[in-house]
């Protein structure tokens, strides 16, 4: 399949249309830089039914509304938004070339803000989506642990990750059950002892069936049926850093993009922000990194060619 370059070389290409990518686009456009955002509608923010810890929204804001506001703001200042998946990224001389279906785009700089993908529980997709929409299935106790205060809560996970998530949630509720996703728990003696001491039950999975009620998610294991106000999936996530690997940027052992204090990667002209970078997976943190990245991009480009207003 033949691809064609878009005519104009952009100052910056932003890959990812979540809070980090859109915040960066707003900054970059307001710096009078030409910027295009490419996204494939995969931002985790889009599945947030209601965020209550995002500053400025005392009654909460849904992920879709927040993204819509940010999209509109970025476009208001001149950023272009394109719903296309970038499949290949490489560098030719001093320009980056990003390829998508039926086309390519060139830019002087690239900001990667592709985030991560949650590993979901084994349940039908319609059931999963409905459970998330109603707050019956959750992925981020930092975001919404407050909402399950003093309610019965299940944590699906094991090992150190499952252990830490259950202990974290213990500060919100004493009615906690840690369920292994498959077979026996992979917990150390110290972890098992700590859970017992904290009154956190341990159940052996897997989940055999799931029922969603108005205010309850009911799950059945091989030995028991539990009713929870919410079930937290502590199964980890997959980092979307493939494009960073393609251009040779250094990654952590977990696959996060390594950056300096100004969000620069190890490849000149290539930057990263948000959940694809190691750190606190929070909207506010991603937006802060994006502001730093965009300002660094503006200053780095200005050192190459003075940014003068004609």
Automatic annotation (TrEMBL):
Gene3D superfamilies given in the database record: FAD/NAD(P)-binding domain (3.50.50.60)
Pfam families in alphabetical order: Pyr_redox_2
InterPro entries cross-referenced by the UniProt entry: FAD/NAD-bd_sf, FAD/NAD-binding_dom, Ferredoxin-NADP_redctase_2
All copies of domain FAD/NAD(P)-binding, residue ranges: 11-290
Name used for this protein in its record: Thioredoxin reductase
Keywords: Flavoprotein, Oxidoreductase, Plasmid
Lineage of producing organism: Bacteria, Pseudomonadati, Pseudomonadota, Alphaproteobacteria, Hyphomicrobiales
């Amino acid at each position: 399949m033949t691809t064609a370059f878009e005519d104009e070389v952009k100052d910056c290409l932003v890959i990812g249309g979540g809070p980090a990518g859109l915040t960066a686009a707003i900054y970059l456009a307001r710096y009078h830089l030409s910027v295009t955002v490419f996204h494939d509608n995969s931002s985790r923010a889009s599945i947030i039914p209601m965020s209550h810890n995002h500053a400025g929204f005392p009654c909460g804001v849904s992920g879709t509304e927040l993204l819509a506001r940010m999209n509109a703001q970025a476009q208001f200042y001149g950023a272009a938004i394109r719903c296309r998946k970038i499949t290949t990224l490489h560098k030719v001389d001093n320009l980056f070339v990003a390829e998508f279906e039926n086309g390519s785009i060139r830019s002087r700089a690239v900001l990667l803000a592709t985030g991560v993908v949650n590993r979901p529980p084994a349940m039908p997709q319609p059931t999963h989506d409905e459970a998330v929409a109603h707050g019956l299935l959750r992925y981020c106790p930092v975001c919404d642990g407050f909402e399950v205060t003093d309610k019965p809560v299940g944590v699906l996970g094991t090992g150190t990750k499952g252990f830490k998530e259950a202990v974290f949630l213990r500060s919100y509720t004493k009615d906690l059950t840690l369920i292994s996703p498959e077979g026996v728990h992979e917990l150390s003696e110290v972890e098992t002892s700590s859970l017992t001491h904290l009154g956190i039950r341990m159940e052996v999975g897997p989940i055999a069936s799931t029922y969603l009620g108005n205010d309850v998610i009911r799950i059945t294991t091989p030995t028991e049926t539990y009713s929870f106000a919410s079930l937290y999936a502590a199964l980890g996530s997959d980092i979307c850093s493939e494009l960073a690997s393609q251009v040779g940027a250094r990654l952590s052992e977990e696959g996060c993009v390594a950056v300096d204090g100004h969000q620069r990667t190890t490849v000149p002209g290539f930057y990263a922000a948000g959940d694809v970078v190691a750190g606190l997976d929070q909207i506010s943190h991603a937006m802060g990194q994006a502001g730093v990245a965009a300002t660094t991009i503006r200053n780095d480009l200005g050192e190459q060619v003075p940014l003068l207003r004609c």
